[in-house]
Each structure stands twice: as structure tokens, then as C-alpha cells.
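Example with several molecule types.
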Amino acid sequence: MAKTYDYLFKLLLIGDSGVGKTSILFRFSEDAFNISFISTIGIDFKIRTIDLDGKKVKLQIWDTAGQERFRTITTAYYRGSMGIMLVYDVTNEKSFENIKNWIRNIEENASADVEKMILGNKCDLDSKRQVSKERGEQLAVEYQIKFVETSAKDSLNVEYAFYTLARDIKAKMEKKQEASNPPGARGGTHQLKSNDQQRKPPSWLSRCSIL
Amino acid sequence: MAAQNKVESNSGDMPSTTDPAAEQKDRLIAAVKKEVKQLMEEAVTRKFVHEESGGVTALCGAVEACLGQGLRRRALGLFKTSSTTALLHKIAKNCPEAALVSARVLSAEGAPATRSASGVERRPSAPRPPLHKRGSGSLLGSQPPPTYRYLWIRIALFERQLAKIIEHLVNNATRYYERDALVADPDYGSILSSLLVGPCALEYSKAKAPACFWTDPPADELVQRHRMSAGTTTPPSVRRPILNFRRSLNASSDDNASVNAGSGNSTASSAKDYVESLHQNSRATLLYGKNNVRVQPKDVEEPMPGYLSLHQSAAGLVIKWTPNQLMNGYAESEGIDKSIYWAMSLQVCVWEVVYVHVHRSQASDALILVGQDGVQRPPIQFPKGGHLLSFLSNLETGLLPHGQLDPPLWSQRGTGKVFGRNKGRRRPMPSLCESGENDESEVDEVAGDYVFRIVNNAIADREAMRHSLLERVIQSPPRTPRRTLASTSTTSSDSSTMSVDCPPIIGNLTQTTITQVSLEQAASIELVCSTMRRQIISRAFYGWLAYCRHLSTVRTHLSGLVHPNIVPGENTNEGLTDAIWRSMMDEQGAIVDKDEVYRLVYYGGVQHDIRKEVWPFLLGYYEFNTTFQERQEQDCTYRRQYETTMSEWLCVEAIVRQRDREATAASIARLSQSSGKPKPEVEPCEVFEDDCSVISDNPPVVSPEPSENEQKRLEVKPVLSRAPSIDEVDNIELDEEKNENGVKINGETDTCEDITFDDDDDDEVCIKSVVENPDMRRESIAEIKRLAEGIVQKGDGRGLLCSVDSGNANLYGNDNKSIEEPAPNHAHSVIVTNPSVDLAVTGGSPASGGTTAPASPARSPLGVLREESHSAGASFDTLDPESRPDNRSNCVSPASSNGGVYSNELVENFALNLHRIEKDVQRCDRNYPFFTDENLDKLRNIMCTYVWEHLDMGYMQGMCDLAAPLLVIMRDEAVAHALFARLMCRAKDNFPSGQAMDAYFADMRSLIQILDCELYELMHAHGDYTHFYFCYRWFLLDFKRELLYQDVFSAWELIWVARYVASEHMVLFIALALLETYRDVILANSMDFTDIIKFFNEMAERHDASAVLSLARDLVLQVQTLIENK
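Resulting C-alpha cells for the full complex:
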């Protein structure tokens, strides 16, 4: 049997508690929605393998606890992740304002070239909306991060978001490989190193060699 | 495929020479057979076949070739086409199945664009990545252009009609086919159609996302597979390190197996998994497989055919034999009890086998495995024709590099096999007989018996190393010396990693050593050997020394984890039952022997009915030596305290609410402004309602009240007889109402500060009166609320004051009535309704009657809206009908019993906590029936009260989980709060602010190292295990999320009492027990850190709790014994 995937991307979902991180993840991994999700304690992850330009990309998506109290644990996961979804709740102004804090958190803890994306979740609840789409876009422009409004409940843009993030990571990775391979030597070692870092998870290597 | 196509094109002008024709038919049918087999295997390993799988195309090609052969094209007018599609359309008239497929084909051909549509159809909202070729859509839409070949066969296959159509063709072969065509052949024709029955029964993926191609097996599957394989295999005891406990999973698997046998579904699915495990998969390499190998199990008269397979897994070689009856994993509901077949199936770990006996006779080749214990396995009878030999040679290959067959199957000299054609020699041990490789012509082979010994260097070495300490010694030195050890084969490598990573190295080294040896002279060999020996011994010694030191450190460390004295568990089977409990109390209700209580609970748990009574003792809320009366008084006092505290935070809450509304209103206003939409609500009344639903999820519920209020306002009473509800507050902020407000509030609106003082006095009086008069207790909360109630807030969120007439305290009943008909004499008071604390509700006081009525209309919309509620106000509205209006009407007097105005900081701090609490309470265990809105509200109150008392700590996610089971058992809010506070004394350290978690992780590490070094090695190898995050949630919530509620109760009791009986850190041992329960699954799959997280998260609430808990107790005992033996 061939190896099960070509790439493994570790993604991370962060954002205030109750913005719907688990629901987004559940929508993406199981294509379902459950209204009675209990708050996430500690950390969990789900896996979905997608096909990206003919490559099998295994997404290992980590779901974190939202309360900042738990950041000591969650930040441990920032380092290994290659893409981060910043989630806020369009019906909750505060969660939107906190996106800035989360971004700062990323800057402090994640690797510098991590791909990011902002999701304004619960956009189906238009009657309760407190944060306009424009504000979301504005923030995204300000930080130069891609942005999309999603609804885990109505399955709106969730797939799109993950595919986009995954594609960006893949593009970045391939670009790096190209950059590091032909010239080699000086710049190459550095590039390679960061590449290794991205591929670090031991499971990745072992899986591949086993299969 | 190319070959088949050629065949097909030839087939038209096929001459009727018999021999080549028959040969060709053979070839054609063999091709179909092969493809069917492959497809079926694919199906079984993946549980489904993708429509675009290469296997499908290949099969279709093979079928097409068969159908094309000997077709009477000319007679049927089909000569223009080379494909058989026309044939299909032709027979459609006579064959309904063909008609159906024919129609499908036509529509598919007519709509080639369906492919792209299919993808969109499946995930309407998801823009598809451009090259997402794997996407599968609905049946019809799944015809991608590149695979337009064999379209009709493909569709017929997916529609499961192919076999029937072929059958039709075969039955009517004379009409369509030449006489010598394959289809017309009496044998081949029916073979062809029956071959295709299998593929037609398969599931072809359509709805599945492409991801399912490559998903990892879920935890369930892993466990199930393990149960299957663990049924008969017990790894050799030598490999088990000391202090290894019984394999609990196996123990429970027996029960499960018997249960499963009864219920069809689970058996079927597990059977499917098992069948899947027989095939090539990521965990085990399939070295050999042969069907129709006969074995005669015990209690069966005749040998039964089955599937024999040889697997190479991380743990070593495994021979499996499965009766044919079980191989059909898909026949799910046959109603046959398959359990007997499961019992018959064989699983033999090759390392357990010492001898392989081979008996060859004219009739069959039989192979008997003899285990270490001398027990013979039932003979495995191979069909004639070299199968036995190929099995043996596969076995031999599989044994390499660290094992071998003795004597080798292949001669050292490389000239031939041990037995191939054996010339009549009957020898117990075959020598290296020279014979040709001619094993095809075995028909004339003469019978013979042979014995092979399976030599496992590793095991042999380990035998010598039985002593566990010594075994560890070897683990400690670094790898390089270990290799040296192995190569001498006098001593050995360690046990656990042996089969995983060392063998290849050892193998190579052995070889190199051998070559060296052969090259060098005897003297130098001796020298080398003695040097090695010395080295080994010295290394061993230092390793051992280091290990002992380490062990002693660890032991010292661990000794703090358990109590030194072992409390025996006799007569504790039933735990603490009602009868025992009663008998332990004296007539006053005091309990004399509390240790006995602890002991009983530790070993047997508490009977569910008396948990409510016992838990307060276990958590130390009641003292054991108190009397009934004392406890009752304690309750009363506590309740009073609780209510007082509640009143305090309720005041602040009202302020918070007020602020929220403003903030929300502001942001909504901004939103509507920015979006250019005119705010829909213009008229005050509408605004009111709209705001509620928009802002706070307050359902329109409130509508009866405003009118009521409005009315009152018109009367310009100096008092709000119905306190401004939060909704009202909302309302009031709106400019239109500001003036009116002022009027209403009269003179009291002046300055906050002044009034605060006044009010403060009132409060004190009030509360005092409550305390003094026990009869009043019931109403105390209500009274407090009244105090808190108040005055409409000003826009700045500061509460205004409504002074409360202390005299009103006595006039409760009337107060309530004031809701409907505001009495002028309650000049300052506001509504009194029931507190959310349930005691007031039950009182049957006029209060309940009075308040229910206005509240009831509010009820129904609530439930609906609640689900989506997000804002802080949400759970406020979800109070039970009695308490809701009360809570709602809570406005705040900035001065409450603790006096003074709340600082902005305090309010903000509490607001933050409040929002978090409400967010979490709302989603706490909603699928557990107990948590109705009413009970969730109790939970909220408990949380808020606790957090209010511990504002510096604040609310932390997970607290809800800890309080919920307490509330479920205690039902009473105040007592549950008391217990929760007790619980938190210990649990608070587990939260991120405390230090306990790191200590737990460290302790876990030590425990695993001491108790299960095999697992420890694995974890160590993966490195990541320095942080045991997979058990983070276990420790944080005392396994609350890992177990079902009834099991949580038992686990918690165990944890609480263990500190008095055996260990203060029972959680550690429960965690260890959980880990140990699945150790074999973890080891077998060589899980890393992420795998384990995923595994345990998926296994949540599926554990066999009683087994886990009892294992935990065993583990405590083990550590106790270990330390005792020091």
C-alpha cells in the first residue's frame, strides 16, 4: 500500500470560548453540527485528509480550550502548527476585539511564518450580529490575513476556509522547497531547517516508512 | 488490461478450434476471477470501494472481454461496434435489469457534465478545489470522462445488476452467442455470473468524502481489533516485565465477546474488522494467505475449511486461521450464532511455538504447531500442491532476522529444499536433503514427517534473563553496548524494544560477527569473547547499579503517593448499602466508625439511593460524629450564608446586565448605522421587544410586563411595583424613556451615594430580621432580592437605589400580590418573588402563586430561544417559571449587605466571570436529562456564588463539570455548593493557576516507569511524553468527561475516600488503570503522543469503569507492596 498521504499539516483553532471552534472542527471533520457541545477542556484534535491539487493532504486540526487561563497548555501547540484559524463570533463583539490579542499570542508563540486565517463564525445568526462583515474584513486587511465568515451550523464556508488555509500552507512549503533545492548551500540550510520543523511530527515519518 | 483488449479484438474472428478456444476461455475467466478477488480484498480492507478505483476498471475490462468473446455480432446487427454496450441495449427489452442499466447509460452519456455537478451537489457551500478528482458524487454523476470505457458494465456494477444481466445472457446465450463462446459454455457462463455476485454486493463509495480513503482507524476499531486478536494470544510471559498486571482488556473482552455474540450488529461490525485485520494493513504485513485450509477444531468431527494467514506485526509473527463461516464479514444478519466459530478460529504467535511438525501423506499435507507448553494445536491441513511448502518458506522468511527454522528449509548449501521431493525417507528430523525444486509435481510425492524447531534467539536469550532486575539493567546502558550483547548471544537485549527496533541490527551484527569469526583465528576469538564478556559484565553491573539507585529514588518518591499500611478489602463486595449505612448510625444519627465507611466505599462504592446522604460526609461537609439535628442546623446556617452571598452577587449581576444591554445596544446601533440600515425599532414598545430578542435573547416574553409597568408608570406611583426587569432596563436606556424614568423614580434618583447609605441600613435590618426569625428563612432570598431590587439604573450602569422598607419583610404575602395590584403602602419595595433557590418555591407561599401567572407566558418561547442564546442575559431568562421573574426583576441596589458601591473594577471582573459561567453552564451536559433549564440555573447559581467568593481565582473552564455531578446527586443548590467548595479545595490546584498538574504528570511518569516498563519505553521513545497532555482532562475533571455519569459517581467516591484508605492521589492510579487497560492497543499500534490523545478522546465515556476502578485499586496495592518490600 502506498503511504497514506503526501503532506501532514498541523492546524490550530483558537479564539475566545464559545465562538464555535469545536463546532467548526466538527463540521469540517464529520460534516455535522451538534448544538450541545460541551466546552473543550485541554486539547483535542481531529483528522481529515483532503485532496489538494492531486496531493493527499492530511490535516491534523487541533482544537483548544478558549479560556485564556488555559493558554499555558494551548500555546504548547502553537509551535508545531503550520496554520492557525482565528475564530470569533459575529454575535459577540468582545470575541472580535480579542482577535487582536490572539494574534499577539500567535506572534509570541508560533513560528513566524505560520499561515493564519480569521473566521467570523455564527454568521447564520444575522439577527444577533454585532460585528459587521466589513469590520472583519477591515481587521483582516490590517493584519494581512485572509478572512471569511463562516457558519458551522449551516456549513457555510467551513470547507472553503480549511481548503484555503491548507492550500496556502502547501504553496508556501513548495515554494520553500523550490527555493532551497536548486541553489543549495547557504540559504538552503536555513530553509531546510524550517521545512524539517514543519514536518517534524514523528508520526508523519514513521507512518510513511511503515506503510 | 491491454492483453484483455487484444483478446477481445481477436474474439470476433475466433476460429472454432477447440483447444485454443478453451484455453482462451480459461484465460478470460481467470482474469475476471483475479479482478474480483482484488476488488473484494480492496473492499474488505477499506470497507468500501471507490467507484473510480483501478480495480473497478480492471474488472469491467475483464468482464467486457468475456462478454465480447463469441458474440454473434453480425446476427445481432452489432458488427459496427466493438463494445458490448449495444448488446445491453438489445437485451434491455427482455431483461428488466438490463433495461434499467440501459436507461442509466443513456442518461449518463447524454449528460457528460454531471461530474462537476456531483461535487457541488454533495457539499453545496464548499467551493471545490480545482483538482479534486477523487470527489465522488451520486451514482449517475460519477462517470468521469477518463473512465468512459465499460460505462454500462460500470453502472451495472454500481447498481448491483451486473450479475443478473450476465445471468440473463448466460440463460439466453443461444440467442446472442456462438456455440463455443464463453458465455454459452455451460460451466464458464455460470461461473462468470456467479463470480460477479460478490462485486455486485459491495458498497461503492459515493457519499463518502475522499478523506475516508486515508483516515486513521478510530479508537473503537483499534480496541475491537485488539479484542479479537487478544482472545487467543497471550504474549509469552517472559516478555512481560515485572509487576505487570493481568491484561484487563482481555478479561473484559471475554464478557464482551459473549455479549456481542447475542447482538447481531456489533458482532457483524467486529467480524468485519477482524476480517479486515486478516488482510494487509498498516499494522501488520500479510506474509501469506491461503483459503480452504482445513483445520479440525476441538469438538468438531470434520476438518473445516478456513483462511490461513501469516502476519508480521510489531509483536512478531502471528499465524491465524479463520473458519470460512467467519470470512464473510458482510453477511451481517444471517441470524447464525457465529460465536462458536469465533471460538474455533486460531491465533498463534509464532514465538510461542517451539516445534512445527509436518506430516505429508498422499491425501494432504498437515502441519502441527507445538507450543512452548508442549500443547499441540489442531493439525492444519493444506490442500495438495505446494501450499505447505510455500507457507513454510514464508514462515522462514518471516522469522528472519532474529529467528530461524532449524533445520533450515533451504539448505545452507543453497542446492535445494529440505523437502521437496522426498524419496521415501521417514525421519523425524529432516536433514538437508538435496532435491530438485520440483514442487509442482508433488502428486507422486511420498509421504514424510518432519520436525522443525523455531529458534528465536531473542527468546532464548531472554529466558536466561528472567530476572527482571537484570532485565532492566540491560535497558539502561545505551544502545551500542546492547548490540554487542546481542551479537554474542550469551546475554541479550532488553525485552520490550526487541521486536521493534533492535532485531535488524542484531541480525546484521550476528552475521558480521559470524563472518569475522570465520576469518579470525581461534585464539583471537577467545580474546574477543573474554573482552566482551568483561565488558558486558561491567556494563551490566554499572547499569544495574544506576538502575537500582534510580529505582530507590523513584520508590522514595512514590512512597508519598500511597499509604504504607494496606487496608484489607474483605466483605466489601456490596459496598456501602442502605442497610449497612443505617446500621452504622446511632440513634442520634452520628456515625462511630468512619474508617469502616471509608473502607466500604473504597472497595465497593455507595449504593446510589443513599449517595445524597453519604456524599456530604465523604467530602467532609458533615462531620461523622454529628447528630441529625446538628446537621440540619448546619444546613440551615449554610443555606442562609449561601443566600446572603447570592444576594450580593445578584446585585452586581444586575449592574452587569445593565451594562451589557448598553454595550449590545451600542454595537447593534453601530452595526445598523454602518450598514446604513435604519434601525427598525422606532417606537418604544417595539424597541423594547425587539431589543430583547436581539440583544439578550430575552424572548418577547416580557411583553405582558411592560404593559403592566407602563400602566403603573401612568399611575405615577413612587414605586415600581414590578421592579424594572432587565428588559425594562433596556427599555429605559432608550432615550425616549429616560424622562419617564426620572419621574418614576422620584426623588430617589438623586445621587447614588446618598441613597446608598440609607439603603445600607435597610439591608442590614432586613437580613438581620431574616436571621432572627427562622420562619422567615424561606423568604430570605426573596427579601434579599427585594433589597437588591430596585431602582432603575441610570445610563451609566450604576444602580440606583430603591430603599427598602425593612418592615416589609413581614409582609411577604402581600408583597407578592403587589405584582398584580401594586399596593400603595409598599412605597419603596419592589416585587418580591421567589428566589431561584428552590426552597422558596416549594413553600406554597402566596409568592409562588403570585409570580407564576405573569411568568408563564414567558415560558414557551424561552426554550426555543435559549439554544441560540449567546449573550450574557441568556441563562437569566431560562429560570424555571417561578424563579425567572424574580431573577429578572433583580435590579440592583449598589449597596447591598456588604455595603458600599461596587467598584468598577469589581463589576467588570465579575462581569467577565459571569459571561464565562453562563456560556459554559448553557452547554454543560445538555444531553444528560437532568440538566433542564431549571437545573442549569441552579448550576449557574452555584458557579456564580463560588466565583463570587473566590473572585481572585475566578471562573475556570471545567468548574461546571465538577459541580454538575454534585448537583445531580444533591439536588439542593446550597448543599451542592457546599460540596463543590469542598471539592474545589483540592481541585483548584489542578487548574492552570495551580501546580498540581505538573506534579501529576511527573508522578504518572514515575508510576508508569515502575509498573509498566514496556509502556514506559514506548513513551520514552516518542519523547513527547514529557507532557502527559492526554491525561490533562482526566486530572482536571477527575475523569468526569471520561466516564458516564453513574461511573463518575463511583469514581469520585473512590477518589474521595481513597485518601483515608490507601492513597491521597487516587486519580493517578485511576489514570494509570485507564492507560493500562489499553496498554496493549497502545503498544500494538505503537501510538505516539498525538495518537494517544486522539485515542482517549474518542474513547471517552466508553470505558468499562468498574474494571478500571478495580484495576486502579490493584495498582495501589501493587505500589504499596512494592514499597513494603523495600
